[in-house]
Amino acid sequence: MKAKKSLGQHFLTSLKVVGDIVRAGNIKKGDLVLEIGPGKGVLTRKLLFLAKKVIAIDKDRELVFFLQEKFKGEIESKRLKLIHQDILNYSPPSYPYKLVANIPYYITGEIFRKFLSSNHQPKSMILLVQKEVARRIMAHDGKESILSISIKAYGQPKYLGVVKAKNFKPEPKVDSAILLIDKISKDFFQKMGEQKFFSILKIGFAHKRKMLIGNLGKIASRKKLEEIFEKCNLPKKIRAEDLSPENWKSLFLNIFTRGKSQT
C-alpha cells in the first residue's frame, strides 16, 4: 500500500522509535489512547499491547480497511476502535485519554489548537512533528512565537529527541522530533478569557520587527502602556518574541484587570 502525498503520509517503520514514543507517553494498562493517523499499524500494535483501549482515526479509507483486517481480533474484543474520519472533524472523548500521533506536517498547528483548546483536553500529547516545529515550540533560539506561547499556556512541552527521515517510508525531506506535551490544563487562563488572550497575543506579534509597545497601541495609550510595562518590569523597547508566557499573562492582567483599558 503506497503512501498518499495528498494526505501527507509518511509511515513510521522503526520499532525503536515506536518504543521511544510509548515510553515518552508513559502508556499504562488503564489508559485510553487516541491515535491520530495509525498508518499501517506499527505504533497501534504497541499501543494495544500496553493500553486498555485504543481509538485510531484515519482519513484514508483504504488504510482503515487494511487495519480492519490486520486487527480483526482486537476490534472484535473492543480493545481497538477504528474510525474513518478527518481528525479535524472529530469530537474528542469526554473521558480521560492520552493522544498519540504521527501527524501530517501540514495540519500540525490545527491539531494543537483543536485538542489543547477543547473542553475535553487530553491528559498528555505525544507527537511526531517536524523537527524545526518542535524546536520553535521549545524556543531553542531564545525567541518565542505565537505557536510556542500558545502551547506553553496549556501545558509543558518537552523535546525528546530527533527522529531521522530514514525511519519513515517514504522518507520525508526533513527530520522529525518526538514532542511531549504534559500537564495539560486551562489553569493559565484563570482571570482571563482564552480568546481575548490570544487576540492580544496576535496583536502583539502582528509586526515582529516592531517594538511590542508600538504593536499594542490599538489597545491602550502610549502613556498607559509605558506605565504598565514598568509595572511588569518590561523594557520599553522589548519585542513580542522576548516575552515568556508569564510575561504575557502579567501584561494582559495589568491592561484589562487593573488598567481597565478597552479593546
Automatic annotation (TrEMBL):
The molecular function GO annotations come to: 16S rRNA (adenine(1518)-N(6)/adenine(1519)-N(6))-dimethyltransferase activity; RNA binding
Classify the source by domain of life: Bacteria
| Keywords (A to Z) from UniProt | Cytoplasm, Methyltransferase, RNA-binding, rRNA processing, S-adenosyl-L-methionine, Transferase
Reactions listed under catalytic activity: adenosine(1518)/adenosine(1519) in 16S rRNA + 4 S-adenosyl-L-methionine = N(6)-dimethyladenosine(1518)/N(6)-dimethyladenosine(1519) in 16S rRNA + 4 S-adenosyl-L-homocysteine + 4 H(+)
Q: Which PROSITE patterns match?
A: SAM_RNA_A_N6_MT
Q: GO cellular component terms?
A: cytosol
> Known InterPro entries for this protein?
KsgA/Erm, rRNA_Ade_diMease-like_C, rRNA_Ade_methylase_Trfase_N, rRNA_adenine_dimethylase, SAM-dependent_MTases_sf
Compartment(s) of residence: Cytoplasm
The residue ranges of the Ribosomal RNA adenine methylase transferase N-terminal domain are 17-185
- Residues noted as binding S-adenosyl-L-methionine in the record, renumbered to the chain: 10, 12, 37, 58, 86, 102
EC number, as in UniProt: 2.1.1.182
Provide the function of this protein: Specifically dimethylates two adjacent adenosines (A1518 and A1519) in the loop of a conserved hairpin near the 3'-end of 16S rRNA in the 30S particle. May play a critical role in biogenesis of 30S subunits.
Q: Of which family is this protein a member? A: Belongs to the class I-like SAM-binding methyltransferase superfamily. rRNA adenine N(6)-methyltransferase family. RsmA subfamily.
The identity of this protein, by name, is Ribosomal RNA small subunit methyltransferase A
Q: Which organism is it from?
A: Candidatus Nomurabacteria bacterium RIFCSPLOWO2_01_FULL_33_24
Q: Which gene encodes it?
A: rsmA
